[in-house]
Design a protein that fits this description.
By secondary structure, the protein is mainly alpha-helical. The chain has one helix and no strands.
């Protein structure tokens, strides 16, 4: 996976995007659970 600094940069950005998406999904799921309860 380590082919160069550019690859690491893209992987870092992708990691941030994945974390943001996961946080948003967890927030939506958590909100739905709280509303249902």
């Amino acid at each position: 996976m380590r082919r160069g600094t550019r690859q690491q940069g893209f992987s870092l950005i992708e990691l941030l995007v994945v974390i943001t998406i996961m946080m948003s999904v967890i927030g939506l799921v958590g909100g739905g659970v709280l509303k249902s309860v």
